[in-house]
Amino acid sequence: MSASAARFRIGYLIKVPHQSFLDTAAKDPALEVVRMTLDDGVEAALKVLETCQGYYVRASRDELPKPMHVHDELLARLPNLLMAASQGAGYDTIEPAACTRAGVLLVNQAGGNAEAVAEHAVGMMLSLLKRFGECHAAMREGRAQRREEFMGRNLYGKTVGIVGIGNVGTRTAAILNAAFHCRVLAYDPYVDAATVADRGAEKIDDLATMLGQCDIVSLHCPLTPESRAMMAANAFAAMKPGSVLVTTARGSIHDEMALVAALKSGHIAAAGLDVWEQEPPPGDHPLLSMPNVICTQHTAGVTHESRSMITRIAAEAFSDFAAGRFPPRIINPEVKARVAERYLAALGRPIA
């Protein structure tokens, strides 16, 4: 088979998030999808990956063996690799700078699970304000309580601060505005005030200033060097007394032990946590036993609808690339010229 007729080979480890990826890819005769396993160890899987031009990468860092995370060491072994695609909106398992150094295009599936995650975030807000978890635990344990001991608060009309107003943050703002007439503030240094306004929020330039005004703070930013430990003891101290924290973003953005302290002191009334430093967290993690904390296991985006959509988007991105078109949702656009050179050399046809 000539280089121009060769199929674009994509490797993934063990399973894909939804059958939609395989079904969509199967419709494109230009794609060849290869399943890697760990049956014979990581090294055997890497030998298969070395033959691939595309890598469909698990996005959860604790579900992917460290040697298969996309970093300089791995990329040095993958001279054929032209494109890496995260299996979600996040790309914790992939180093964008390493991809750029290696001339590898990196894409994610941002927006594909925005509805699911936004609904989860708002659901946590309602559950925490109405104290569902506390009331359920007391009833299940047979502790007699007066109803007033679980008196909650309405979400309607509250001030909600959103950290990161991308796809999920924008959809969260829309729900809060339309259904609950909230005042929505946003801290996002990468989005200008006019765009923030178009997305349904008021831009606040200083994080601490925003935190002090909010009844609820909801995190929707990616994990980057700038956002790592952004919500630490000083940030929790800046939050309005009695406020609520919700995060469906990424573990390591909030300092878990600092949050424990803020909750124990009563300065923060409650927290809803979908993401963790270690996933799943150990069973004896103190946040799991706190009555004013609702915990989920990074399941905000895990719905049938969102998984179907993000996997279809990923397969379509590989199809675009194999057909000589740059796909949407590129994380490192500065690498496009280098990728175009490598693409032409490897496949014998241009990409535009």
Major sheet description: 7 strands, parallel
Described by the principal axes of the CA atoms, the overall outline is elongated
Order of helices and strands: EHEHEHEHEHHEHEHEHEHEHEEHH
Mean pLDDT: 95
Strand order of the largest sheet: 8-7-6-9-10-11-12
Instruction: Tell me the number of helical segments per DSSP (H or I, 4 or more residues long).
Output: 13
Q: Please tally the β strands and state the result.
A: 12
Radius of gyration: 22 Å
Percent of sequence in beta strands = 15-25%
- Which regions contain 5 or more consecutive residues with pLDDT less than 50? none
SSE layout and pairing:
Layout: E1 8-13, H1 19-26, E2 31-36, H2 42-49, E3 54-57, H3 72-76, E4 83-86, H4 96-102, E5 105-107, H5 114-129, H6 132-140, E6 159-163, H7 167-180, E7 183-187, H8 193-198, E8 202-203, H9 207-211, E9 216-219, H10 233-238, E10 243-247, H11 256-265, E11 268-273, E12 293-295, H12 304-322, H13 336-347
